[in-house]
Every structure is written in structure tokens, then in C-alpha cells.
Amino acid sequence: MNPVRKKRLFIVLAILAGFGIALALALSALQQNINLFYSPTQIANGEAPQGTRIRAGGMVEMGSVKRSGDSLETDFVVTDGVKSVTIRYSGILPDLFREGQGIVAMGKLDAQGLLVADEVLAKHDENYMPPEVMQALEQSGMKAQYQNGKQGGAE
Amino acid sequence: MNWTWFHKLGSPKWFYQISGSWLPWLAIAAGVLLTVGLVWGLAFAPADYQQGNSFRIIYIHVPAAFLAQSIYVMLAVAGVVGMVWKMKIADVAVQQAAPIGAWMTVIALVTGAIWGKPTWGTYWVWDARLTSMLILLFLYFGVIALAQAISNRDSAAKACAVLAIVGVINIPIIKYSVEWWNTLHQPASFSVIERPTMPVEMWLPLLIMVLGFYCFFGAVLLLRMRLEVLKREARSSWVRDEVTKTLNAEVVR
């Protein structure tokens, strides 16, 4: 490579490195603001602001969903395996909402630490499989093992 | 290492001839792969156990998103070649690939929104993955706008190349956004080192679709670049020969 081209290549790489470092610093400073939601542990530690609308995300705890008999109000517990937060939502839940599913709820924390949500979004994982395979997993009792393995992998 | 092929690329005439021989093969491959992949993916691949049939939009969404990012990386590489080696064909490649990349980004965003409504419960959410993808679309718009707005060919090429190179920083951000931050978008289903998170009868049609999209991009890019090369070299003798040859063939037919 002749010296002129080499010099130009270095200039291009230097510009790229400069922008890269500047952006990396900006993004790491904004780390907390870019996160879409707070985990239950962060809420328990008081990292989430009180009195403003926040998003909380995590897994819906097994057996925690309580539907009210005469309205759309639903209470459920969202956990990240360490801490958990109770969420109250009144409205139609997305199709993928079920126990064991990851969700993100938006709402305000009240004084008791209950999150009154006005929006619930379902989060789905990166695993896809045909229904027959899932049935086979359930029948052989491998489902729990599969999901444990999946969670272990995700953490 | 032999670099003659690289320096040959600097010759518009050589590029025009070699691309003419690749074009039909790429077009045929794209047609076959896209037909097979679409029919297989939309009609024969099994439905997902949670999402049912709505998961099938993956066969459009993922290839478009792959391509949107790959095209931008290609833009940056061509930008470096154009800046450092002053190769005209690289400038042509940057300006001709940008609109295709913009369309792929639009397809990825729109199919993602359509997919998001039934599965997540919303068309749009400002999470890191979706936002960085939107920024990619605006970067493409920037490259297109610079190419159109600056009438001096060399200045336009330089401006486009700089934006393409600087903007490539967004690509790792898109890629790792789902790992660095809490997002609604799920992590990647595919990686080079691990096995895919879906059975073979689901990912094989997806692989075919991805390859089909790449072939389609190659064919459309070559077509657009050939036209642009003819326009730019309109006064040279080889273009005149080429055009008369084509016209004569038309007359005979």
C-alpha cells in the first residue's frame, strides 16, 4: 500500500475510533435510561422512582394470577428469581400472557409497593418449537427440565 | 497475495462485463430460493407452540433485518475503499446500495410492528433494539439525501462515504442491544457458535429465505450499479459499443 493511501486509511480508522469511543461513553452514561424496564430486584432496592410511571419486567410467578370475579381486574406477581413485585392490571391481557411468561408492565408504584399498571406487554423468548414437540416434552416430564435449562442459559 | 482482482474492480468496463455474467445466475438463485423458502415457511413449516401461525412472519422479518444490517456494513466497507483507494466503483456501490438497504429496514420495521401487536400487545415500544433499528433507517436516509443533494460527484461520494463509515458504529449497537440492556425484543435465535433455538424444520426454510434475500440484493445491486456505470461513462467508447450492440440485437429480433 502506498504511503498516501496508508495515511488516508489511518485517518478513516482514527475518525471511526473517535466516534466509537465517544458513543460508548455516552451510552454507558445513559445505561439506566436505555433499559426498557426495572427488574423486581431494582424496585426492591429503591432504584425505581416513586410517583412516576415506570416499567417493571420479569416472569409471572406460577400460581400467582388472581382474576377478579366481576371485573377485568387481575393481580399477579412478577419475579426475577430473587425479588418479586405484585402488579394490578385492569384490562385485556395480551395473548401470550400466562404464568411462567416474561412480561413488561407500565404503571405507578403505590405506597405499599404494589404496581398499578395501565399497560401490560408480553415478552417472548428466542425459542420456537412446534406444538407436538412441546406436548411430547410435557408428557415425558421434560418440560420443567427444559425450562430450567433455558433460564440457566439466559442468565 | 494477488491483488489484481481488486485493482481490476477499479475499471468500469471490466466491472460491467463481469457483472453481466453474474447477474442471470444471481437472479435465478434468488427466484428459486425465495419461492422455495416462502412456500415452505408459510405453508409447510410447523406452527409455534405459543404464537401459532403468527410466528411465520419470521420468514420475512429476520431475513430483512439481517440484510438491512449487512448492507450497511457493505456501505461502510465500500466507503473505506472509496476514501482510501479513490475507487469510483465503490462510490457507485455506496449510492446504489443505500436505497435497497433503506427498503430492507422498512420491511424489518413494518413486519416487526405487525408481529409485535399479537405477541407483545403493542406495535411499537421505545426499547433499545427497535430504536437503534429506526436510527439505521435514518442513517440510510442520510446517505440517500447526501447523494441526491450534492451535485458535484466527488464531494457527494466523499460525504456519503464519511456518513456510511461513521454510521457503522450503530451496527454492533443493534446487534448487542438485546444483551446490553433490558429490552422487550427477545435475544437472537441464531449465533455462529451455538445451535439454533428452533428445530431444523423451522430454521431450514429460514436459512433458505436468508440466502434468497442475499441473492436478491446481489442481483438488484448489480442491476442498479450497471445502469449507473453506463450513465457515468456515457461518453466513453466502450459504452457506445455496448449500447449499439444491444440496439442491433433488438433490431434483429
Automatic annotation (TrEMBL), chain A:
Signal peptide: none annotated. It comes from the Bacteria. Keywords: Cell inner membrane, Cell membrane, Cytochrome c-type biogenesis, Heme, Iron, Membrane, Metal-binding, Signal-anchor, Transmembrane, Transmembrane helix. One of its GO terms (biological process) is protein-heme linkage. Residues 30-155 are extracellular. It is found in: Cell inner membrane; Cell membrane. This is Cytochrome c-type biogenesis protein CcmE. It comes from Pseudomonas taeanensis MS-3. The gene is ccmE.
TrEMBL record, chain B:
It is found in: Cell inner membrane; Membrane. One of its GO terms (cellular component) is plasma membrane. The keyword Ribonucleoprotein does not apply. Keywords: Cell inner membrane, Cell membrane, Cytochrome c-type biogenesis, Membrane, Transmembrane, Transmembrane helix, Transport. It holds the Pfam family Cytochrom_C_asm. GO terms for molecular function: heme binding; heme transmembrane transporter activity. Residues 14-185 form the Cytochrome c assembly protein domain. It is a multi-pass membrane protein. The chain crosses the membrane at residues 21-45, 57-85, 97-116, 128-147, 159-178, 202-223. The keyword Phosphoprotein does not apply. GO terms for biological process: cytochrome complex assembly. PANTHER family: CYTOCHROME B_B6 PROTEIN-RELATED (PTHR30071:SF1), HEME EXPORTER PROTEIN C (PTHR30071). Required for the export of heme to the periplasm for the biogenesis of c-type cytochromes. Belongs to the CcmC/CycZ/HelC family. This is Heme exporter protein C. It comes from Pseudomonas taeanensis MS-3.
